[in-house]
Design a protein that fits this description.
With 343 residues, the protein is an all-alpha fold. Helices cover 62% and strands 0% of the residues. This is Reverse transcriptase zinc-binding domain-containing protein.
Amino acid sequence: MNNNGNFTLALKQLSEKALHALYSMRRRLNIHHLNPKSAIKIFDRIISPILLYNSEVWGAYVKYDFNNWDKLPIEKVHLRFCKLYLGVGKKASNIASRGELGKFPLIINIFKRLFKYITHLNSLSETAIAKQAFLISKDLLTKQNTSYYGKAMDILKAFNLNTEITDLESITTELIQPITKRLKESYLTFWKHKLENSSKLTFYSTIKIDYEVEKYLSIIKDSNKRKTLTRFRLSNHSLQIETGRYHNIAREERLCNLCHSGEVENESHLLLTCEAYGDTRVNFINSLKNDLTTTETNLNEPTLSVDIMKSTASNTILKLSKFIFSCFEKRLKQLEAGNAGSH
């Protein structure tokens, strides 16, 4: 710990060790070939214990608002795993990367461990050293000094749990599950708000409904097609709507360079209207006729395009991934040909 009593150095060291273990695992195993449940299980069994070591103690002192939590080294390793598995870049949205895998930020697990440890402290005899330290920290709180007890109470207040739990001594094993549930509910509220107010995730917010691992991650076996679909969903791709933000181009001026429609090159444009993918799109639509439950076969209907993106039908998912992969391949070739012609 630092000489001022905080755990910044500890968190940095734990994250470095966990990152080393993650890259070591990656050298020995191609995680892109794993189904999401297996990949998550490996992370939770091998990497997570390193990150959460002694979090029952230092967890009381971390920033407990979800915005700032993502900036801490512990969660950065967690996000690194999510993005590595999904095959997206570092600039991909944090909340979307966790959302695709249905993974909650590690702060939820940390607080669960923290309060579970407090139930253990409550069960100790008054003569136990850990119990005496716990009582001393409570005494420090009454004197308005920073303490472990006070920090844990602040967490309860931050999530409106102090109305039901007035002191740490009243926390029992039976309360751990409802506390964890409340923490997850708080995060889901935060997640939905961020999703609805993010210009980067405008498309994603229309297709991501439930906070759970996405089915397509298990269905698509071709890792390249799966990664292309993920990048398309999360707006972590090479379309102008995304790349234009890094060149300070106004949103309405991020136009498609492949067709002459004068439309913004976003996900809907590629999926619905871009002339460059006309033949590919017709073949895609025709192949969906037997899969879709609707009689509509006109992909220009926005509601139909969203239905296709949200589909959990294996055939539709596989055909969608093939269509989007083909579009990006065609796009790359046309842009390269155009650049070669200009020189």
